[in-house]
Every structure is written in C-alpha cells, then in structure tokens.
C-alpha cells in the first residue's frame, strides 16, 4: 500500500478529475483532451456515447473536433475510429480482415453465428417495420414465423422485446438492439438503406413487396420453409 493510500480514510472519495485544465496552454490542453477521449474509447468493450466522453473533458471542448483529430491521426493506421450504435469505437479496418483471420487461424464471422437466409429476412423485416409482432411477421411471409427462429435472433442480441401491441391479447413486439447497429456498422436506424437503394442493387422488387408478397419480392428468397413453426403431432 502506498503512503498516500495509507493516509486516505476508508470513506474518502478519490480526487475529482480536472477536466478544465485551465493551468495548461491551449495546445497542451487540447492534446490532453484528445488523449483522454481516445483512452476511454480504447479501454471500452462497446461503443462509447457522447455523454460518457464528456465526463473527461472541459465544458468548452468540442467532442466532434476531438474525434476528427483522432481520426486524422489514425489515417495511416490499420484501425480506425467509427461512429456506431450511438457512440464511438475503435475497429480494425476491413482490408486487414484476411490477415487477422490467417494469423489467428479464424474464419470470417467466427464467434457470431452466421444467419440463415430465413433469419436474415426476418431480421430485415424487424429492422424496417419495428415494433412488429410475430403475427405481423407471419402475415408478411405468408407462413408462421417460428419461435425458434425468433430465439436465434434474440440469442445473438440482434433483437429484443419491444412495447406490447395494442392488438387483442397485447402480444409482444420485437425491435432491433444496439448490438444490431454495432454488428452492421450503423450509428442509427436512419442509416438503413431505403427501399429504392435496395431495389437499385437488385436485392428486392418494390412492386411485389407493395403487393404483400415479401418472399417473392426479395431476390433469391429460398429457405422460407425454415420459417414454419414446427408442428407437434
């Protein structure tokens, strides 16, 4: 135990962090703020929101400019600072993915179960039409969406229960999570591509979607049999 720790009483609070740093010249103060923000983001296991970063810098500090400076300094590095799931996070640049996989003997996506086509389709519907009930999902697909399929998406923390629906029986609705945003590199749901962009990319037919035939509207919509609820004899 250090001498300072020995002198500290059990109920003493740690010294407050000096966030204003008024004793430092402007340039050094800015460098210290940059260092603190980057250290907090680096130490975090999930995206760090603005309100957390604001605890370690002064009231006059423009966090957006701090982030811009950090990104500029990382321009030549194999990792970058990305805005995702309502916060900021360090991530390895995608171009180095193959090198990392070879170095550690892993395959792309290891640690996260790859979604089947049926699971991906249901997740897409939840993302665009949330909050949505399982019954509403089933009406989209024209087949019962199984509880097991919903369970897979919940187990990966891609969806969660939303508010109760005003429908008779007040069924649960489903919504996407922050982890969904993080996994797909989105900051907010507003960054989801609109239907026009998906149609231009050849991923769906808006005409068939508007007609209510979502499986026919999605190009390559095989695998829909997995949606069906298993029937107990």
From TrEMBL:
Pfam families reported for this sequence: SMC_ScpB
Key words, A-Z: Cell cycle, Cell division, Chromosome partition, Cytoplasm
One GO process term, biological-process aspect: chromosome separation
UniProt-listed SUPFAM superfamilies: Winged helix' DNA-binding domain (SSF46785)
Keyword Cytoplasm: yes
Record's protein name: Segregation and condensation protein B
